[in-house]
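As a point of orientation, let us examine one representative protein, giving the amino acid sequence and backbone structure tokens.
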Amino acid sequence: RAYFDDGTPLGTARADECRIDAIAQAWSVLSGRGDPDRARRAMESVEEQLVRWDDGLIKLLTPPFDKMEHDPGYIKGYVPGVRENGGQYTHAALWVALAYARLGDGDEAHSLLGLITPVGHALDRDAVRRYMVEPYAIAADVYAKTPHVGRGGWTWYTGSAAWFHRVALREVLGLRTEWADGGRRLVVDPCVPKTWTSYRMTYRHGETDYAIEVRNPRGANRGVARVSLDGQDLPGPGVPLEDDGRRHEVVVTMIGG
């Protein structure tokens, strides 16, 4: 993860504390600079050591800081397993989901978003008592220490809400716009679970609605075969956007369809 001033590394496979950190692991993928095989192995290690499905959280690091001689900063001020010190730091958790989407694993990306979404922490009375914060606002952190495992903290005070929106909308549903050839165009490039055979969404451009249907008949995670606008196949993935007040139909067919 880092180096201290004397050259001692922070975050190594042999360390007693902070042996693995989700930020470094995820950014080996997101940076685009990591060796592909090592980056994929890094994400497998996140799954093995940091994702806690039964507790509904993704830890930032493990083991937490406690007694190490070097001072990692204020993070050590939290008791082990609370907030950033070994609990879920939601920014990093979303970067993990984003990294899986960038690897083309829509099943894992979608499942991790399901762990993070506050709605999933309030599906029954016991879950509400454990989470203890609003089920409609992203929590900055989730505790991983007994007896507070699963308790949320710092709602309404985190930029991770914007990251959740970005990962869900742009990376999983695949919806984005871009500027090209002198105009703005709509691009849909999904990374979804294989069980999703289709889904719909509507994009409003000024006074114009673009009704989008994504078809995935062969159960692919990623890959677009063709795009049509109002029944006419387009030469590429981009849909030219025009604010003409009409309703337009966009069909995106994933590979194999």
Q: What stands out?
A: Residues 4 and 10 are 7 Å apart (CA to CA).
